[in-house]
Every structure is written in C-alpha cells, then in structure tokens.
Amino acid sequence: MAKILVAYYSASGNTLAMAQSIAEGVKKEKLDADLKDVEDLKAQDLLAYDGIIIGSPTYYGTMSYQVKKLLDESVKFHGQLNGKVGAAFSSSANIGGGNETTILDILNAMLIHGMIIQGDPRGDHYGPVAIGSPDKRASAECERLGERIAKLVKKVIG
Ligand SMILES: Cc1cc2nc3c(=O)[nH]c(=O)nc-3n(C[C@H](O)[C@H](O)[C@H](O)COP(=O)(O)O)c2cc1C
Asked: Which helix (H) or strand (E) holds 5?
C-alpha cells in the first residue's frame, strides 16, 4: 500500500495541529499516514514514502531551520525523490505574514527533487495556511489537502 509522510516542525503546537488534520484527511482515503517531527527524521527516511507533505511555522517569511536542515540533507539522495508526490503547509502569526512564501520555498525544493506538486483551484491554492492555532476553516483545508494528496498518490502509484 502507498505510504504518505506528514512531517512538521512545531515549537508551540500550531503546525502540529495542522499536520494532525492532514493525516486525518489521508486516512479518510484509506492510506497510511506517518506523522513525524522533522527532528526525528533522517533524509534517508524520505525514500520510504510515495507522498511527502512537509509543514513549517513561518519564520521571517520562510521555513524554520529544522525543516531546511532536513531538505538540505536530502541532497545526499538527489534524484531518488523524483516522481514522488509533494505538498507543503504553514502556520504564521499574521495574515500576510509570509505563510505562502514559506510554502513556496518548501515546494521549490520539492520541484528541484523532481517531485509532483498539485495546486488547488478552490481551497488554499499553494497549500493550507493557518493564522495561529488552526481554526475550523484552516483545519478543513488541512483535511482537504490530505484527501487530495492521497487521491493523487493513488493515481500516480496505480
Ligand atoms: C523566529 C520566529 C520568526 C517568526 N516569523 C514570523 C513571520 O515572519 N511572520 C509571521 O506571521 N509570523 C512569524 N512568527 C510566528 C509563527 O510563525 C507563529 O507563531 C506560528 O503559528 C508558530 O507555529 P508553531 O506553533 O507550529 O510553532 C515567527 C515566530 C518565530 C519564533
């Protein structure tokens, strides 16, 4: 069965709560979702997954160093993430506080790896965003992402 990783860094729980809702969405589509703190992951672990969803709090408009570290270490496996499905999400304190630029920075690394990225024409276009603790809207967007990525992984894996 296809496997999906929901990896996050979260200092005060907001990004973690988003990750939990995303994992719920994946499970609704009857796929396994591993929920892991990026600090408990090694770059090699990424190879085991068909879909990789990464979330970070927005720090100065981009990802936290803990998430960047994992991505930078993934260079050891450059070429081996090609064709996997990717997605990203972020929590920030402010509207217009840089959560979309954070998501795009994570997606940028995924694209360079050759991963498959899907936008969303109806929901949060680049990936789910939350302002502080995820409210009902943000949690629903997270669940929606989980479902959409699970569906895409099933299509890609066959
Ligand atoms: C070092 C640092 C930089 C931050 N930079 C931003 C920022 O640029 N824009 C913003 O809206 N919030 C910023 N924040 C706030 C966090 O993104 C926000 O509190 C987030 O919800 C924390 O997520 P967490 O609970 O998963 O740790 C920053 C927080 C820290 C600690």
From this structure: strand 3-8
